[in-house]
Specification:
The protein has 7 helices and 5 strands, in the order E-H-H-E-H-H-E-H-H-E-H-E. Helix 7 links the parallel strand 4 and strand 5.
């Protein structure tokens, strides 16, 4: 099964959080991540650690994860998910990316976990 990471999982991995080892185990299979979620990771790291964090982290993300471009089809899917479930826009793109790639989402984000949609989720909390 394919794996999709959301920003929660990636930040936890990069900051060596409690779920870092679970994410690390998926890296050899190059998990997918929406570029919207990459944006979330980068702005959160920039706020915490400054702009240099982006320059240090982005090459590692490119090397280890499969970036999924945001196109019209993915945008339509994310908009339908957001309309049907109470979640942030980035979360809707994560779910849309997972569905488009037949992937299980690894996250600790309660909005994705509690939405009870037709997607597969592994709770990393």
């Amino acid at each position: 099964m394919n794996i999709c990471l959301d920003s929660w999982a990636v930040i936890n991995w990069l900051e060596d959080g409690p779920s870092a080892s679970a994410v690390e185990k998926t890296i050899p299979s190059r998990p997918v991540i929406s570029l919207v979620n990459v944006c979330e990771v980068l702005y959160i790291l920039s706020r915490k650690h400054g702009d240099k964090a982006i320059q240090q982290v982005l090459p590692a993300l490119r090397q280890n994860l499969a970036f999924i471009e945001v196109d019209e089809e993915l945008t339509l899917s994310a908009s339908r998910i957001k309309a049907a479930h109470k979640m942030a826009l980035g979360d809707a793109f994560c779910v849309a990316t997972a569905l488009a790639n037949n992937a299980k989402i690894l996250t600790g984000d309660p909005e994705i976990i509690n939405a009870k949609g037709n997607w597969k989720v592994q709770d990393l909390r």
